Fold this sequence. Notes:
The protein is built from 1 helix and 11 strands, in the order E-E-E-H-E-E-E-E-E-E-E-E.
Amino acid sequence: MRQVSGINWRPYHGGARGTKVPGDPNAPATRRWLVWLLRRFFWKKVVVFAPQASPHTAYRIGFRTAWGDAFVLDRMSTDAQFAMRLGQEDCTFFALSRHGETEIPLHGVAITRLDDPHYKDTPLY
């Protein structure tokens, strides 16, 4: 996976339904104050998504935690597919149109590991 750097997640208060993905039972339980450390060093499984949008359509990536907190990426993506890390808890992922007015359906391509060579060029958020 190709780790995307310089990203910021901002709170999201919309009603995107998204795609719920079961957590990784082998990952350590999430502690809110340790989440950045867990995400970076201990979450080894990822889910790969392909947004169901026209090629080169700009979209925003978002997720909702098991506790109901939702966040959206502060910048646009035009990638044909992207990956997100999986913690122990279930998580819901979604994509929004440029201005956030429309949800873009996500197709779950795979649940795999960070070191899967098949997805080495896939951006990891």
